[in-house]
Amino acid sequence: MNTLWISRLRAGAGPVLCVLLLFLPLATNSYTQYVVNLVLIYVILGIGLNFLLGYAGQFAFANAALMGIGAYTTALLSYRLGISFWICLPLSGIVAAVIGSLGALPAMRMKDVYLGLVTLAFAELIIWVLIHWKSVTLGTDGVSVRAPELFGWRVRGDKNVFYVVLLCTVVMYWLARRILESHIGRAFVSIRESEIVARCNGINVARIKTLVFAISAFYSGIAGSLYALTLGLVVPQSFGLFQLIVLFSIVVLGGMGSLFGAVIGAVVLTALPELLRDFQAFQEIILGIVLVAVVVFMPQGIAGMLKRVGLLPREVLAQNWRRFAVATSPGRQPFQPPQAPLHPGE
Predict the structure, then answer these.
(1) CA–centroid distance for 8 within its chain
(2) To 10 degrees, the CA torsion angle through 343, 115, 186, 291?
(3) What confidence tens digit (pLDDT) does each residue in 283-332 have?
(4) What's the per-residue H, E or C state across the chain?
(5) What is the tens place of the pLDDT at every residue in 187-231?
């Protein structure tokens, strides 16, 4: 009975939390609301990077630069061409996905640190173009973003922007769940565990790698567009090495291969500097100690630790996959491979 009550509580926690968040602007000031908006944006970024690093095992470093591609797509289309933000938002994700798919090309032949170095060079090339292509990007002066309108409602100010960011975050989280609960999510983990075994099971590794790079880049592009809306000004320096470190810290701290981890990591990494504002000289030291402690004592991240103690449910990648196996092999018992862990070593 207690198990049934806990499962119902877990199932209803998400919708209840979303409803409560709708009233959050009534209890926050402008700066706190700005921080909350950043938390939601980093949730989207954490999910996107988790697709690559946590689920597919691709050691890539281009997500921060692809976030910049999304931000500049929105800023330039609205600033120079006057295109509505509501059109720029999906276009930013699409443009980032197209460019991010190029990252799959070196992934076909390289792994681990070599793939990381190539994608890092690719990211630095993107930042270099954003800085030096002044006739288009305006260089280090940055590009301003116009406040969008929706049925006469002008989305201006952090509290109004919050509802746009919240809606996008909920949709992107739901979409990530649907992707990971499909056969595509299982293919991601199969490639992470062993590309040879994945090929032997009929998985088109090249296509799946291209797909995961595109999906991850799409999430980065959408987050970049929302980031541009939140800040109102886009500059290349916002998407450099520091941003990349923040994104990787979110994934490692929250937990690789976990959607819950992306949420937890974004909250902790965004809120922790605010809690340490009175200790400016020790901020980086304390943050470094926290990261080292998580890596040493919680290698599966905070989400992994909460799952072990039963506070978070185990995340299942593919729903009803055994029934699917029976349906596709009549008269035969389905082969039951060992459950692929969401985290290495789980």
Answers:
(1) 27
(2) 20
(3) 778 777 888 888 888 888 888 888 887 777 777 665 444 443 344 344 44
(4) CHHHHHHHHHHHHHHHHHHHHHCHHHHCCHHHHHHHHHHHHHHHHHHHHHHHHHHCCCCCCCHHHHHHHHHHHHHHHHHHCCCCHHHHHHHHHHHHHHHHHCCHHHHCCCCHHHHHHHHHHHHHHHHHHHHHCHHHHCHHHCEECCCCEECCEECCCHHHHHHHHHHHHHHHHHHHHHHHCCHHHHHHHHHHHCHHHHHHCCCCHHHHHHHHHHHHHHHHHHHHHHHHHHHCEECHHHHCHHHHHHHHHHHHHHCCCCHHHHHHHHHHHHHHHHHCHHHHHHHHHHHHHHHHHHHHHCCCHHHHHHHHCCCCCCCCCCCCHHHHHHHHCCCCCCCCCCCCCCCCCC
(5) 998 888 888 888 888 888 889 999 999 999 999 999 999 999 999
